[in-house]
């Protein structure tokens, strides 16, 4: 695979930055668009490097890393979905296969309803689909509390609550919000408020994404091949439960990938993840 080429794209409300990794051995494979939210292109570099036989597209969501916002307006599931369509149009290579993780796996469900001709196969890895969970009302309250904490106290306290939420290994009990707030220092997070309020996840995504309800009837009729997926680790966590709920709603079984919620990257927090093994599974699923 060649070194990635970086491009920018001026879209309503933002300037997006995306990368295209071309291949020196073009074959029959469609381009692969790898995306997440709020994860940016760099979070998928290890996975992208495993696909040397096809063009790979990665990008930074608006408001994240190299992609900038032009204003302080709302960023919603639909906004991200429109951005995916614009990136694929700008690349100009036609239909793509998609691996989408976390919030990205939520947003793509709006994209493929609006633009089904953009995508052949969608692998939706651990979408935290609050609207499909039996504890949705509690989950909505908890996520709204995180957003309120962010605007009131700043990044550290809010991110500590977010980490506590995504690690919780079961449906949320009714008294979840009665527990003491976690200490940000426990997670190596700042305890002081630096005054910034530009974090995409805490300031915008969590304000809108939990309210998103996928159009299940349209997804069931979609010509796009949809593959709900979960990690083999993290049983009971919200994102994993979301992936299982999506599979159930579409009348299929979720595919199990190696590793945890971020099984496509090995780092200091998840040293046991194996991106190469993850890529083997993804290649198998895409081959269908």
Task: Map the helices and strands.
Elements: E1 5-11, E2 14-21, E3 32-37, H1 45-48, E4 56-60, E5 68-69, H2 77-91, E6 96-102, H3 103-114, E7 119-125, H4 136-153, H5 155-167, H6 200-208, H7 216-221, E8 225-231, H8 238-249, E9 255-257, H9 275-287
Parallel strand pairs: 3-4, 3-6, 6-7, 7-8, 8-9
Antiparallel strand pairs: 1-2, 2-4, 2-5
Helix pairs in contact: 2-3, 4-5, 4-6
Describe this structure in words.
This protein has helices at 45-48, 77-91, 103-114, 136-153, 155-167, 200-208, 216-221, 238-249, 275-287; strands spanning 5-11, 14-21, 32-37, 56-60, 68-69, 96-102, 119-125, 225-231, 255-257. It has 288 residues and is α/β, with parallel strands linked by helices. 35% of the residues lie in helices and 18% in strands. Strands 1, 2, 3, 4, 5, 6, 7, 8 and 9 form a nine-stranded mixed sheet that branches. The chain has nine helices and nine strands. Helix 2 (77-91) crosses helix 3. The protein folds into two domains: 5-129 and 214-287, Rossmann fold (3-Layer(aba) Sandwich); 136-206, no CATH class.
